[in-house]
Every structure is written in C-alpha cells, then in structure tokens.
Amino acid sequence: MEKAGEFNNILDDCLERLLFKGETIERCLQSYPEYAADIEPLLQTAMATKQALAIQPHPEFKTRARYQFHSALQQVKPRRAWLFRGWQPQWAMVVAIILIFLLAGSGTVAAANGSMPDEALYPVKLATEQVWLALTPSTIGKAELNVNLADRRMVEIARMVNKNRTEHLERVTNRLNRHLVRMAALAEARTREEKVALAPARVPSPSYEAGGDNRVHVRNGRLARFRRTVAWYAVRHPEALQAMLRTAPESAKPSLRRALAIAKARYQQVLEAVEAEGSD
Amino acid sequence: MQDEQNLVHRAKQGDGEAFAQLYENHFDKIYRYVVFRIGNKTEAEDVTQQVFLNALQSIHSFKWKGVPFSAWLYRIAHNSVVDYFRKSKKIVTAPLDDSLASSGDNPQLITEHRLDIEQLISATKQLTKAQREVISLRFAGELPVAEVAKVMGKSEGAVKALQHSAVVALRKVLLRAED
Q1: What is the ipTM of this complex?
Q2: What would the pLDDT profile of A249-275 be if each residue is shown by its tens digit?
Q3: Helix H segments across chain A?
Q4: How far, in Å, CA of B162 to CA of B36, rounded?
Q5: For chains A and B, what is the number of CB pairs under 8 angstroms?
Q6: For residue A54, which residues of chain B lie inside 8 Å, CB to CB?
Q7: Is B137:B68 a contact under the CB 8 Å cutoff?
Q8: Which of A141, A189, B51, B60 has its CA 20 to 30 A from that of B110?
Q9: Structure pTM?
Q10: Record: contact B171-A16, CB cut-off 8 A
Q11: Phi and psi (nearest 5°) for B14?
Q12: CB of B56 less than 8 A from some CB of A
C-alpha cells in the first residue's frame, strides 16, 4: 500500500516535470533509476496523450466567442439599470413593474430572451423588446436601449453565420439598421433637448454653484456613459463583422457587407451627433 | 499577469475588465477540456461559450474558501458537459474535423495528429468515468493535482492513484488498438 503510494507520487512528479515544465523522459528516469522500467512506458503514453491534446480553438471561433462574451459583459449592468435609472412618473413605474412582473413570471418570455432568429420563440423576444422600448420614457434611455438591441442583433448575426443559417441574415440586418437609425435620430433629438435644457443652467445660480442642480449632473453623466458605449460599439461591431466576413460562406457575404456598411455609417452619424453636443 | 485572486475579487464587484482577463486566461484550456469530453468541435464551441456565460452569471456567488477559481470554473465546465449529454442523449459523437489539428501546414503531421486525437478519445471511452475525468482535467485542462482534487472532491492521494490507473488503462487500450 505504502509502496503503491510512493509510486503514485513518483509518477506524478515525473508527469509534472514532463508535461508542464518541459523536461525530458530521460531526465525523469535519471531521478528515479530504480523505477525507470515501470515508469518509462507510462510517461510515453502520457506524452502521446499530451501531444494529441495540443489543440487550439480556431481563431475565428475565438474572435466570435470573445465578441459574444464581451457583449454579455456589457449587458449585465445596463439591463438592471434600465428600469430604475433616473426619474420616471409614478404611474409609468407601477405599470412597468406590473408588466415586467408578469413577463418575468412567464417561463416563455424568459426563454425567449436568449432565442435566435431560427427559433420558435424569437417573435416573443422581439415583442418583449418593443415593450421595453415603449416603457422607456426618456430620449436618452431609448437611445441607450437601441444600442443594446443593436448589439443583440449583432450576436444573432454571428450566430446565424456560425450555424450557416444565412437565409435569416438579411432580416436581422434590416433590424440592426432600424435600431441604428432610431439611435441616430434619438441622439440628434437629445442634442436639441440638451441645448434647451442647459441654456438657463449656464447662468450661475446659488444652488448650481453649491452643486445643487443634480439634474444637470445626472444628465451629463448619463450622456457621457452613452458616448462611451456608442464609441465602444462603433469599433466593436465593424470589427466583428469584418472577422465574420473572413470565414463566412459566400451566401452570407452580401448581407454581412451590407451590415458592415450600415454599422460604419450609422455609428459615425451618432458619434458626430453626440460629439457636437459635447462640444457646445 | 495579475494575481488571480485580485482579478476574481474585482470581477465579483462587477469589473468587466477583470472578468475579461479571467476569460482570456482560461478560455483555451476550458475549450480543450470540453473538446476532449465531448469529442466534437462544433458542439464543444457552443458548450465552451456557455461555460463562460454561466460563470459570468454566477461569479457573485463564488467564494474562495480554499477552492481556486479554476476549480470552480472546471466544475461549471463539467456540469455543462453533463447537461450537454443529458440534452443530446448521445455519447458517441460525430467524427472530429480538420480544425482539431493543432497547427502547421504539413498534411502528414495533421493527419497523424488527427488520428491521435480520435484514437485517444475513442480509447478514453473505455476508461472508467473517474479515470476519464482525471485525464481530462490533468492533461487537457492542465490543472495541478491539488486542483483536480478540489474539482473532483477527492484527496490528492486518491487523484494520484486514479491518474496512475488511468494512464495504465489508457496504455493498454491504445496498445490493444494497435494490434
């Protein structure tokens, strides 16, 4: 029993040195000459196993997986914040809570959230998104939501390319375009709102000097966050589409090229709108 | 590389950059572990992605308590593989495809390599469940014995014994296959 334990320890020491520290079988055997005959064949099997397992994920899969993971990371916080961020009329909050309580209680809606365009629950996912948009009262809130929904469409495009379900790409690209067009329009509308709202605030008042006008700070903080989010996606989405284009089947390429052109143009438009606002 | 404990602490607080770093540190090894367990590249890609999404969802519940982060992550991977088999109800999977070859342009090398992986996966199906798990974690996941012990809920001594019996059994199966 003790001898077996000793042998297990020696084998493990050799495996550690061989597999993870790059030592040779010969060097291991020199350390334990009395066990060499028993250990050598096992080390050879271990080396062959290790070699066979020296596989790497495909670079395109890594790019796609990394993109999807980063999207999930981005969505963790905003999803919670949508409902409780900022001021909202009380009745709207009550309706929102009741609706979302009902929706959250339904397993169908929860399951639909992760569904893809080729799945039966996808229309439920789209309908839920429309409810979110309807329940978001502010211009900036709607703009933020459209950014997040555009990112969802990107994940769907990646998934459809991955599954070779290219027949869905054109419609998802149209939806992506709609989110980005809305986002650009909302960002421009927000520019106009902000100019009006900030005009009196530029006249120094005692409460403002004392840091009392929290609404202005909340607005500015939220806008800055929106700018950061848009700037991030303006790089990530075209990058991801370009990565997909490199390996996508030929049938997917026209839709992907169109999605890429849309993403570049629309994000540029939004960035110009929010930058113009920031430079006032 | 930043200290893993610090990264985990920050990730728990909602720091996306820290979690992204943990993802980069562990992604390839988790993928290898999953490929080895499932034996099919496309399915393994989906399961690997799911492992990290599950980890992201439950990172707030992770507590050190002597269990390293990697051991926690491999438990999620193990459960994801079990779920995969439960859902698909299939143990024998499709043949491995070209992308499983590690690297290089030499067709002969790739063919030999691919054969090795197929042989290996086929051979490990004849091992016991515990032996297969120890090979997956030790050789594909590259975990030290102490962490394998945490994942499997066994003592280090038991894992070393299991490792020994697994390598012996694997050798026998591979030799038999050569005959």
Answers
A1: 0.78
A2: 888 888 899 999 988 888 888 888 777
A3: 2-15, 25-31, 36-52, 59-84, 90-105, 107-112, 122-135, 139-162, 169-201, 206-209, 214-247, 253-279
A4: 18
A5: 105
A6: 102
A7: no
A8: B51
A9: 0.56
A10: no
A11: 95, 15
A12: yes
